[in-house]
Amino acid sequence: xxxxxxxxxxxxxxxxxxxxxxxxxxxxxxxxxxxxxxxxxxxxxxxxxxxxxxxxxxxxxxxxxxxxxxxxxxxxxxxxxxxxxxxxxxxxxxxxxxxxxxxxxxxxxxxxxxxxxxxxxxxxxxxxxxxxxxxxxxxxxxxxxxxxxxxxxxxxxxxxxxxxxxxxxxxxxxxxxxxxxxxxxxxxxxxxxxxxxxxxxxxxxxxxxxxxxxxxxxxxxxxxxxxxxxxxxxxxxxxxxxxxxxxxxxxxxxxxxxxxxxxxxxxxxxxxxxxxxxxxxxxxxxxxxxxxxxxxxxxxxxxxxxxxxxxxxxxxxxxxxxxxxxxxxxxxxxxxxxxxxxxxxxxxx
Length: 349
Description:
Blueprint: E1 11-16, H1 20-24, H2 28-45, E2 51-56, E3 76-81, E4 103-107, E5 110-112, H3 113-122, E6 128-132, E7 135-137, E8 140-142, E9 148-152, E10 161-165, E11 171-176, E12 183-186, E13 194-199, E14 206-207, E15 218-222, H4 226-236, E16 245-249, H5 257-264, E17 272-276, E18 310-315, H6 321-330, E19 338-343
Parallel strand pairs: 1-2, 2-3, 3-4, 4-6, 5-7, 6-9, 8-10, 9-11, 10-12, 11-13, 12-14, 13-15, 15-16, 16-17, 17-18, 18-19
Helix pairs in contact: 4-5
Protein name: F-box/RNI-like superfamily protein
InterPro entries: F-box_SCFL_complex_component, LRR_dom_sf, LRR_FXL15/At3g58940/PEG3-like
Organism: Rhynchospora pubera
């Protein structure tokens, strides 16, 4: 490739590893690694590639060639750095011009406001953006064309609030773990269709899903903090008219069955409910109490899901699930509901 620079290149992938000493010191050996790796990257860029995927361990944000962010042919770009660079300086590439780019993934990057603004303004065709294990040193994201946003296990900074202006956004995946992002605030009302959120009990985020409740068809809430997030949604009392599929997992749903039933009252057109067993959980027989804070009364909480067709239980241990599903069925107005039990694979358990 180094001698055929006029040739066209479809895909370029580079995995570059250095020893621990070379990563942690500013040695001549480390500098040599950077020079050699960059020579491969420059050679690839000269061939007008469509796809570039880099896993470069020992680099920081500033060591990547600036030309990487000015390649007119690129349609798909993946950049993953070493986790050690997360404590370095923020990426600073003053000029971003990727006119053909549709898919962009960052891993272990430090991203500030100028760089994020440069990316979103310099990639006019960008449809999918993924930020994985990044440090988010910015407060807003603006894009009229982005359709898919994945924020996965990133660190927040400052207020921890990210304001999102994305009127075309249809898919959001958000994995939040402590210390994470405190709030995703939608300043426009995107036509979200699919929303998947993971969070632990220490980092329950504010995700303003009630702004998008009329469009979401597929909603998934996972992790030990999902209960708190569901509670926040129920308190806002939105009606999820378009919701067809609800997936809940990795939290003690049997202990909060009343909360689930309260939410189902706001999803009248739900067609499928999927519950994924919490690891190592053993369910006990559960009686739906339906406690009312106003009256202090107890009783069942019936809910109308006239379109509900399937309840799927993905379990590691079936103990207690039959009783829980029976309790659910007793409170569903629609009687012809199929129940599917799926054993989780060993690697999942």
